[in-house]
Amino acid sequence: MTDDDLARRLTKATHGGPAVAPAPVADLAHAYRVSRAICDLALAAGDRLAGYKVGLTSEPARATYGATEPAFGHVLASTVLQPGQPLSTADMFAPRAEVEIAFILGRSLSGPDTTAEDVVAATAAIAPAFEIVDSRWSGGPTTLAMLAADNTNAAYAFLGPQAPLPQDLSGLECTLKIGDKAIPGSAAAVMNGNPAAAVAWLANHLAAAGESLPAGAMVLTGTLCAPTPFTGGDTLFAEVSGLGNLTLATQ
């Protein structure tokens, strides 16, 4: 199966098609070629790249896949929900909610030597965010390469009001509420307490392919809490200290 064939199957699964049977993905280089092909298919169909997501930003998450570094995916404009827009779960398989800190860049960042301090200087604002993740693989990804090939499980994003960067990112805490469940979380879980380091990692990783992070890009930096399953009809509510609240209706 070619990279384009696999990309088309995963894309079809994203839009109501069947889950994709596990297929061999040789390594991360192969995985990111498939992920890039998925993005290219969307752009060719008229979509736009709104930004990126960084996953596996905590040690436990990396340990699950035997990873030594984070993984990234593309965030398409069509998957960024607007205020008041409900999330439809009709085409998803097993959606889960994450609470994240989104960085909005005021100027571009280019690796390979970008630091967290460079990210702070380039950031126009941050915002609390929901990331909705879902796997298009039948049974979910069983390897790091499968995860990355499927755009690192990216599904949807919803951003709250923008705010200036606080002095202490690691002190940000959250509570995710779904029905009678309350799931605590903290930015201390993200890149050892520095979500800006996730953006720096991404800039340096993209540099290897000759790419950079443009001004205006949005970067989701990894979940503060455990990814939590939900079903259509649930209302997702998150409170993030110092940044405010988020509410997202699902159907």
| Fourth CATH level, the homologous superfamily | Fumarylacetoacetase-like, C-terminal domain
Oligomeric form: single chain
Helix share of residues? 10-25%
Work out the count of structural domains.
1
**Can you tell me the residue ranges where pLDDT is under 50 for at least 5 consecutive residues?**
none
Can you write the helix and strand succession as a string? HHEHEEEHEHEEEHEEEE
* Major sheet description: 8 strands, mixed
Number of helices: 6
The level 1 CATH classification is Alpha Beta
Instruction: Give the percentage of residues in beta strands.
Output: 25-35%
Strand segment tally: 12
Structure description:
With 251 residues, this protein is an alpha+beta fold. It has one domain: Fumarylacetoacetase-like, C-terminal domain (Fumarylacetoacetate hydrolase, domain 2). 24% of the residues lie in helices and 29% in strands. The chain contains six helices and twelve strands. It has helices spanning 3-14, 28-44, 59-65, 116-122, 144-149, 196-207; strands at 49-55, 71-76, 80-81, 96-105, 123-133, 154-159, 173-178, 181-186, 218-223, 228-229, 235-240, 244-249. Strands 1, 2, 3, 4, 5, 6, 9 and 10 form an eight-stranded mixed sheet that branches. α1 crosses α2 (28-44) and α4 packs across α6. The chain is globular. The relative contact order is 0.21.
Please give the structural blueprint:
Blueprint: H1 3-14, H2 28-44, E1 49-55, H3 59-65, E2 71-76, E3 80-81, E4 96-105, H4 116-122, E5 123-133, H5 144-149, E6 154-159, E7 173-178, E8 181-186, H6 196-207, E9 218-223, E10 228-229, E11 235-240, E12 244-249
Parallel strand pairs: 1-9, 3-6
Antiparallel strand pairs: 1-2, 4-5, 4-9, 4-10, 5-6, 7-8, 7-11, 11-12
Helix pairs in contact: 1-2, 4-6
GO cellular component, one term: cytoplasm
InterPro entries: Fumarylacetoacetase-like_C (IPR011234), Fumarylacetoacetase_C_sf (IPR036663), Hydratase-Decarb/MhpD_sf (IPR050772)
Keywords: Hydrolase, Lyase
